[in-house]
Design a protein that fits this description.
Length: 192
């Protein structure tokens, strides 16, 4: 059975999208693969490089699963695309987690300090994947309640004259700290 060209809709079908693109609105994609395979591919990128290639090749992937791929996230809400941002000038940008509608894929490390450990409950829901979460303390006291919230996610701890303090003001002992950090790979304690 042949179908005449006039039977097809000549205009591309636009889809409702929350992103505005410089080349105009998106056109509904017709892939040769089954929609469930496309859905799985979109939601489960294997590496950041694969995800970058997917979103560069077609708007469909970013529109259906928007992720910001960053190298480092530090301070309160600074993100940097480079793995080691100390060698680049003006590379970090501040993001407002309340306004951010995408997930964040941290390829190198998320650095928690006294300033942002209490906001981890805002940061964590925005994370898609991460490789390393570090807690770094510099001569500050970190509250034990804040520490407990992030302890199971930590991979590295670096304390430079820093202490973890419980609510009653007493110092939490090292064995208690290590007991609640099951994924810890590195622990450095520098005393003054």
């Amino acid at each position: 059975m042949c179908t005449a060209i006039s039977d097809f809709d000549a205009k591309p079908k636009m889809i409702n999208v929350k992103y505005s693109w410089s080349g105009g609105p998106s056109i509904k994609q017709l892939f040769s693969l089954h929609p469930s395979i496309m859905y799985y591919t979109t939601k489960n990128p294997s590496t950041p490089e694969v995800y970058k290639k997917l979103i560069q090749s077609c708007k469909y992937f970013f529109e259906n699963f928007p992720i910001l791929v960053v190298g480092v996230m530090h301070e309160n809400t600074k993100i940097c695309v480079y793995i080691d941002c100390r060698h680049h000038t003006k590379c970090c940008i501040n993001v407002s987690l309340n306004k951010l509608s995408t997930k964040i894929w941290v390829t190198n490390k998320l650095i928690l300090t006294k300033d942002n450990i209490s906001t981890f409950s805002l940061i964590f829901p925005k994370l898609f994947r991460w490789n390393n979460i570090q807690l770094i303390g510099f001569s500050d006291n970190i509250m034990f309640d804040d520490f407990k919230k992030v302890a199971s996610f930590l991979n590295d701890i670096h304390f430079f004259g820093c202490r973890i303090i419980s609510n009653d003001g007493s110092v939490v002992m090292l064995d208690k700290i290590l007991e609640i950090t099951p994924n810890i790979k590195g622990f450095c304690l520098y005393l003054h």
